[in-house]
Design a protein that fits this description.
Blueprint lengths: L2 E6 L3 H12 L3 E8 L4 H8 L4 E3 L5 H6 L6 E2 H6 L3 E4 L10 H6 L3 E4 L10 E3 L1 H4 L8 E4 L2 H17 L1 E11 L15 E2 L7 H5 L8 E8 L5 E9 L6 H9 L4 E4 L8 H11 L9 E11 L2 E8 L6 H11 L6 H12 L4
Parallel strand pairs: 1-2, 1-5, 2-3, 3-4, 5-6, 6-8, 7-8, 9-11, 13-14
Antiparallel strand pairs: 9-12, 10-11, 12-15, 14-15
The structure holds nicotinamide-adenine-dinucleotide.
């Protein structure tokens, strides 16, 4: 029997998770929630998703807009085994008791505090930790990018130190209220919250992060300097280590991908839903090994990188796959991420 999945919060992350769940052979999307009628509510209906009302929304308001409503969040939960909470930051934790009362497992997102769940989760990094848990938290987009890279480097070479500068997008493309600024804004947090967040997955990761915000809506870029305990034989070996790992996409120099504009253009050409780029994006020319010092750039498509992780979190919780590699392969095949 497929695991029955609800998605509460149908925004940037929620709508992508809903699409991803609908593509998995071992999961069924029971429905999604909206708080009020909107173009997104309409598009959920057009995709054939059952729409439920949450967050104090009114069923009558949806009906007046001509949008069919299948019920309330409580009714959605009653039909589900697990809910993926993709409500705004800190709204998810307010739902925790409701999910527990409905006896549904819950996958939270990175905008929630770590203690909202029994564990923070990333498929490459700590899949086994998710086994049998009732509440997991998929770490944020930036942290997901960091811990995926850490999973590659720690295992092969050991990491003795890591400084990362995170150049963050100012807002998501649809966030017209937040908007862009004409400037570069340092966050003045030493470290930024990303390093400590990465340690919710790898408690001993010696990473220090700082962040600044720049006027773009698509993708973050991380500038990394990692000191390795066991130096690789060559930079080419590191390139191959990343390239051979699922959820990494490396561009070669002849592809002339100068930066995030071409990455996003490639994503549009590739034609996956919503032009998403769920992989860590690295450039071969942006990886340099100097003895045991590794420097690399990576770009993170903030709207989509956590989507496959949310799927694997469900699979880990319900023990639907024997190991991380099997779950990742199954997710990625369904999402068209396999090369
Ligand atoms: P969003 O604002 O795009 O979407 C949130 C949705 O939840 C909206 O549709 C909103 O109407 C709805 N909502 C608001 N209150 C609700 C309630 N009480 N009940 C049900 N629905 C409600 O937010 P998002 O960017 O998708 O972020 C969701 C979570 O994912 C956050 O924890 C965020 O930190 C995390 N996240 C976001 C990004 C990103 O870059 N957007 C990346 C990774 C993780």
């Amino acid at each position: 029997m497929p695991v029955r999945v609800a998605v509460n919060g149908y925004g940037t992350i929620g709508k992508r998770v809903a699409d991803a769940v609908a593509k998995q052979p071992d999961m069924t999307l029971v429905g999604v929630t909206k708080t009020r009628p909107s173009f997104e509510a309409r598009s959920a209906v057009e995709r054939g998703y059952r729409l439920f009302v949450a967050g104090g929304g009114s069923v009558d308001e949806f009906r007046a807009a001509g949008l069919p409503v299948a019920g309330t969040l409580d009714e959605l939960l009653a039909e589900s085994d697990v809910v993926v909470d993709a409500t705004p930051d800190h709204v998810g934790e307010q739902h925790r008791a409701q999910y527990a009362a409905a006896k549904v497992a819950a996958v939270f997102q990175g905008g929630e505090p770590a203690d909202v769940a029994e564990a923070s989760f990333n498929a490459l990094a700590n899949y086994a930790v998710g086994r049998g848990k009732r509440r997991l938290r998929v770490v944020s987009c930036n942290t997901t990018g960091i811990v995926r890279a850490a999973a590659v480097l720690r295992e092969r070479y050991g990491v003795t130190g890591w400084e990362a500068t995170l150049v963050r997008r100012a807002a998501d493309p649809a966030e017209s209220k937040k908007g862009l600024m004409n400037g570069i804004v340092p966050t003045f947090q030493f470290p930024s919250h990303h390093g400590p967040d990465a340690r919710t997955i790898f408690p001993d990761l010696p990473i220090a992060t700082v962040a600044l915000v720049v006027p773009t809506t698509l993708m973050h870029v991380h500038v990394n300097h990692v000191r390795l305990a066991r130096p690789p034989a060559s930079g080419a070996e590191v390139v191959e280590a990343f390239r051979s790992t699922p959820r990494f996409h490396l561009f070669r120099s002849w592809e002339h991908v100068d930066g995030t504009p071409q990455v996003m253009e490639y994503a549009r050409d590739r034609g996956h839903g919503r032009s998403d780029m769920m992989e860590n994006v690295l450039w071969e020319t942006g990886i340099r090994l100097d003895g045991s010092d590794l420097h690399f750039f990576q770009a993170i498509h903030q709207e989509s990188i956590v989507v496959p992780e949310s799927i694997d979190a469900i699979r880990a919780m319900f023990d639907l796959a024997p190991d991380a590699a099997t779950s990742i392969a199954r997710t990625d095949r369904a999402l068209g991420l396999t090369r």
